[in-house]
């Protein structure tokens, strides 16, 4: 799984609402060998997954770390 792009990959979130992409380790500004695979913001819905009360679908590049957060 780690060596492939993933689209519509479902992960858990602690609450519903818009989660903004704050960090994507696959971005070009971290080096010329990165693919810059897009990881857009995600809208989490009230659907339990992975022990968390909400979930959302994300896109993520291979070997990528993504950090999401909500503005308060």
UniProtKB/TrEMBL annotation:
<dbReference type="GO" id="GO:0005975">
    <property type="term" value="P:carbohydrate metabolic process"/>
</dbReference>
<dbReference type="InterPro" id="IPR013780">
    <property type="entry name" value="Glyco_hydro_b"/>
</dbReference>
<dbReference type="InterPro" id="IPR006048">
    <property type="entry name" value="A-amylase/branching_C"/>
</dbReference>
<protein>
    <submittedName>
        <fullName>Glycogen branching enzyme</fullName>
    </submittedName>
</protein>
<dbReference type="GO" id="GO:0003824">
    <property type="term" value="F:catalytic activity"/>
</dbReference>
<dbReference type="GO" id="GO:0043169">
    <property type="term" value="F:cation binding"/>
</dbReference>
<dbReference type="Pfam" id="PF02806">
    <property type="entry name" value="Alpha-amylase_C"/>
</dbReference>
<feature type="domain" description="Alpha-amylase/branching enzyme C-terminal all beta">
    <location>
        <begin position="4"/>
        <end position="69"/>
    </location>
</feature>
